[in-house]
Design goal:
Chain lengths: 444, 291
């Protein structure tokens, strides 16, 4: 181990899995873990995700086995059995989702056999192995997806015309997940398609169970959910496309073109939709344009975010706002393969994109910024001002030190309250424009 | 701590005769006048059976599980010669974590301060010797046992296990852990068997404390649920255990062993393998080989 974890921008596999399972419609997660896991996620994770802490079966109200020394020594299977039995009596749900933490995975509890017993009784129940030592929250999200695809989806449910499945925005790790999924659902609606989004208010268990009947899977990420997409294809034979979350008009145009083409829609029809939506979009944007020009609204931007936000925000600032995304940091702990595939996916897209710097450590990010943004006494030095920092709450101090305005977009976002705000689609782009410009002029 | 309690741990591969050796050693120490406590640290919970007429006793972990806490009189039982018997216990095979069980049980004993109350002279931990995880290394870590003895036969797998144990002792030695007292060579009858364990001890810079011959007396005693010291106190085998007990009671200075690297251990074993093959084929006799 050569580097320390410094201001991590994720929690553990159980955290990501719990956020995902809790976001499934009418689903009751059951945590099989030692004490403290769920309580930590309540604030560290959900609180830092735009304060989305409460709920009837959320954060501090999950059933959990709360494993003690007794279970560590003698095994926790009996305790899990008891917890499931009691949960079924008092927690009303249509799906029960057992998630394991580190303790039962270390001692080797046979969770499957306990869960199978209830499944044989006709209970809709499943489980995923999500020990924190196996990976971070993004890994946990992917494990939940894989569990759904392998264990919950019906095989051969019959073709469901004009439907697609959408994933790739991990609940809570994507702070604006609810609004973002709704925005993508609307975009696909423009193409005449109904989207099954699995998570949040726009999803239903009936749609999830029949997801294998969809025409296409759309992964809104160049990294998250791709492994699950390959598994889906292997089990159910449905192909997938992947692209970053479409923040704003330019990305929504690209999204509609790619998805529309893959769904076999006539190019002319797609162009018409894009034209119509563009007209509507720019009508809203128009009043701001003169002010933007008169105020010299262009900025040098430093973008710091996870794979989805780092790429999509940098693209939005470049394409929709005409800003200079000077430094783009992707903060995920990616493998070399994942980095290579992300670089390849980005370079394959039409425009040259700002180059990505892979760096997880906040201190190292600050050093890299210093190296390039340090003030100089040279007369013609490019001072890269005025500046703007689009990152997370963790990057606020950096913005202050640069004298730059700042907006939290990527996890953690603990300085904003988020309900249904989303940045995908044309209207999402307007909201992102409002938030970015408002932050830039906040001190007026 | 008022008086100086000698705490020793006996390790050895499963089935090597570790519990037999431990129980006979405890019984022999008792006969020499020491107040002894034997702690079985194996989930099988049968370490102290022959000290208790073949009977199982409630384990620390089972008691803890049922009652939430343990009292000394619920887990400590007197056996032959006044030897106090404790079984740590553990989960059923294939579930839970036996290693954590050992840690929990030892913590309970420390908490109860039974050594002081019972005026114990010698505490003997009988531990499953494959040291598969940190829990089984607890008795050799700081503050528990001072001396470790390993029971080994001339069987190579037993010596591999002993070598692993030596690696564990070496690892903890710098942090004030227990040191190695020596090897108790068990079931040593064939002439070459003695040569093999002696050679192993020399190579790993330790010593053989006692050569314990294979004996039918042991089996006979165990079938009665007794130690040899109880069942056949005047037998040759009883004298061997008494000799071992005397040596261990006087033992004060343990050392850090020098475990062989895995490649060296394999090379050493195959050298002996070739030697044994030559003896078997009659190419050389054990006498001609000088052993």
């Amino acid at each position: 181990m050569s580097t320390a974890i410094e201001r991590p921008r994720w929690t553990c596999a159980l955290g990501g899995a719990l956020a995902a399972a809790a976001a499934l419609p009418r689903t009751v997660p059951i945590i099989h873990a030692g004490p403290g896991c769920a309580a930590n996620f309540a604030w560290t994770q959900n609180g830092a995700s735009g304060l989305q802490v409460g709920g009837p079966c959320a954060a501090l109200a999950f059933p959990g086995t709360n494993l003690q020394e007794n279970e560590v020594v003698f095994g926790g299977a009996e305790r899990l059995d008891e917890e499931i039995e009691q949960t079924l009596k008092i927690m009303d749900g249509d799906l029960y989702f057992v998630l394991t933490g580190c303790v039962p995975e270390v001692i080797g509890d046979d969770v499957d056999s306990v869960v199978r017993k209830y499944a044989h009784r006709g209970v809709a129940i499943t489980s995923a192995s999500t020990a924190g030592f196996k990976g971070n929250s993004y890994f946990g999200y992917e494990e939940v997806l894989k569990t759904l695809f392998a264990k919950v989806l019906k095989t051969k449910p019959g073709r469901r015309e004009k439907t697609v499945n959408v994933w790739g925005l991990p609940p809570m790790m994507d702070v604006f997940w609810k609004g973002n999924l709704a925005g993508v659902k609307d975009l696909l609606g423009l193409l005449g398609y109904r989207a099954n989004v699995f998570f949040g208010p726009g999803a239903s268990l009936e749609e999830i169970e029949n997801a294998a009947g969809a025409e296409l899977n759309i992964v809104l990420s160049d990294v998250y959910g791709l492994e699950a997409a390959r598994l889906f294809k292997k089990i159910h034979g449905v192909d997938f496309i992947s692209l970053p979350p479409p923040f704003g008009a330019a990305a929504s145009d690209r999204f509609l073109k790619l998805a529309g083409r893959r769904l076999g829609l006539p190019a002319r029809k797609i162009s018409e939709i894009i034209k119509r939506e563009g007209r509507r979009h720019y009508e809203f944007l128009e009043p701001l344009i003169d002010v933007y020009n008169d105020m010299e609204g262009q900025r040098y931007a430093i973008v710091i975010g996870d794979v989805n936000y780092g790429c999509a925000v940098a693209d939005f600032l470049t394409d929709d706002l005409g800003w200079l995304a000077d430094l783009v940091f992707v903060t995920d702990d990616l493998s070399d393969d994942e980095r290579a595939s992300l670089d390849k996916a980005r370079s394959a897209r039409a425009r040259p994109r700002p180059e990505i710097i892979y760096e997880s450590r906040a201190g190292a990010i600050a050093e890299k910024i210093d190296g390039r943004w340090r003030p100089s006494s040279t007369k013609y030095h490019n001072s890269r001002r005025p500046a703007f920092v689009a990152g997370s709450s963790l990057d606020r101090a950096l913005a202050v030190s640069l004298g730059a305005p700042h907006l939290s977009l990527s996890f953690p976002v603990s300085n904003r309250a988020v309900l249904n705000r989303g940045y995908t689609g044309y209207d999402g782009g307007l909201r992102l424009m409002e938030d970015v410009i408002s932050s830039a002029i906040l001190m007026r | 701590m008022g008086k100086n309690i000698k705490q020793i741990a006996i390790y050895g591969k499963g089935g090597i005769g570790k519990s037999t050796t431990s129980s006979n050693l405890s019984a022999a120490l008792a006969r020499l006048g020491y107040r002894v406590l034997q702690v079985g640290c194996d989930p099988k919970s049968d370490s102290t059976n022959t000290l208790r007429g073949g009977q199982y006793i409630p384990t620390v972990l089972d008691t803890l599980r049922e009652k939430g806490k343990v009292a000394a009189n619920e887990i400590i039982f007197e056996g032959f010669g006044g030897v106090y018997c404790v079984e740590a216990g553990g989960p059923a095979p294939g579930v839970g974590c036996a290693g954590r069980g050992i840690i929990t049980a030892v913590e309970q004993l420390k908490r109860l301060q039974v050594f002081e109350e019972l005026k114990i002279d010698v505490v003997l931990y009988d531990v499953l010797g494959d040291v598969v995880c940190g829990g089984f290394a607890v008795p050799i870590r700081e503050g528990i046992a001072q001396h470790v003895f390993t029971v080994a036969s001339s069987d190579f797998m037993a010596l591999y296990a002993a070598n692993n144990l030596f690696a564990g002792i070496q690892k903890y030695s710098a942090a004030g852990g227990a040191l190695l007292g020596g090897v108790i060579a068990n079931s040593i009858s064939a002439p070459y068997a003695k040569a093999i364990v002696d050679d192993f001890a020399q190579k790993t810079k330790t010593k053989i404390i006692e050569h314990v011959p294979r004996s039918v007396t042991v089996s006979q005693a165990e079938l009665q649920g007794k130690t040899v010291i109880e069942a056949a106190p005047d037998s040759d085998q009883a004298r061997v255990y008494l000799s071992l007990a005397k040596k261990i009671s006087k033992h004060h200075k343990s050392t850090t062993p020098a475990p062989l690297a895995i490649a060296d251990l394999r090379e050493w074993a195959s050298k002996w393998g070739r030697e044994l093959l030559r003896m078997e084929s009659g190419e050389i006799s054990s006498q001609a080989a000088g052993i």
